[in-house]
Amino acid sequence: MNPKSIEAFRAVMLTGSMTIAARDIHTTQPNVSRLISHLEYELDMKLFERAGNKLTPTDEAIAFLVEVQRYYLGLKTLSETAGNIKRFGSGRLRIATAPALGLGFIARAVRRFSEVCPGVTVSVRTNNSATLEQLIASQLCDLALAVYASGGNSNAVSVEKLADIRGMCALPPGHRLADRPVIEASDFEDEPFVSLSLHDGMRERVDAFFNDLHVRRSMLVETEFFATVCCMVMSGIGLSVVNPLVAKDFVAQGLILKPLAPSIHFPVYLLSPSHRPASILAQRFEDVVRELLAEDVKEFTPQPLVKTD
């Protein structure tokens, strides 16, 4: 069946005129007439009653139009689907994240990404940074956000540092240091401290920071996640140095965050498979993550004090 005949039939049925139909499908009226006649011959069915210049569709034509409209709706759906694939890829994005980024930050990223790419399914896995590298190396995830990169899968994993987030001092409500604009490392001397667990990469970074400054803390509690650290600080167990990407979600619950001097930074790494290009969806998500990190870096960078006379 000639698609042009179907197009001509549909145009005549919708306009009621061969002349207008010819204009709408960019052809001539005699060509429309020939196409309709050819369609009637193919279908062995009369589609129009002709009386001079007047065309009246038969009952068969009205019934046939229903199926033709379904056909065109299907073509429209195919076109929209192709457009979505071109813009968004397959429609599913698989990401993995370190626990330090797996709460509020990743939720904000997914929400903003969904605004940019509506209808895309996002699968999120939370694992330690070493496992994240394995997930990317095996291409089980499209990208990952890590807080440290070991480089153990250097041939299969591309690593990019996205940001260095300035660490913050976490205080419980009403703490004696809460009114200070900046907390000095020396203020932690003999203070009860809530720490990440041993062998955690961020724990090692914080320990080295205080050891280099010869500050001795009272290590009261060790736990695996920054979110747990924040909860324990809020309850008054002790102080801590935290990644503000996690801690900012606890400020509304009473956690106090203060700049720390000298500064300590927590890196954020983007991991992606090195043997295949990033999908359109992965690129869009990377853009969102970069935007959010830029906003957070600005938020957590202390503003210089303005001297007044």
3D architecture notes:
It comes from Pollutimonas nitritireducens. Belongs to the LysR transcriptional regulatory family. Keywords: DNA-binding, Transcription, Transcription regulation. The structure is a single chain. By secondary structure, the chain is an alpha/beta fold. The protein folds into three domains: 3-88, Winged helix-like DNA-binding domain superfamily/Winged helix DNA-binding domain (Arc Repressor Mutant, subunit A), CATH 1.10.10.10; 92-164 and 267-300, D-Maltodextrin-Binding Protein, domain 2, CATH 3.40.190; 168-263, Periplasmic binding protein-like II (D-Maltodextrin-Binding Protein, domain 2, 3-Layer(aba) Sandwich). Helix content is 43%, strand content 22%. It has ten helices and 13 strands. It has helices at residues 3-15, 18-24, 29-43, 59-88, 104-116, 129-137, 201-212, 226-234, 244-247, 280-300, and strands at 48-51, 54-57, 92-97, 121-126, 143-146, 157-166, 168-171, 183-184, 192-196, 218-223, 240-242, 256-261, 265-273. The strands form four sheets. Strands 4-3-5-13-6 form a five-stranded mixed beta sheet, sandwiched between helices. A four-stranded mixed beta sheet has the order 8-12-7-11. Strands 1-2 form a two-stranded antiparallel ribbon. Strand 1 (48-51) and strand 2 (54-57) form a beta hairpin. Helix 2 (18-24) packs across helix 3. The longest helix has 30 residues, at 59-88. It starts with a helix and ends in a 9-residue tail after the last helix.
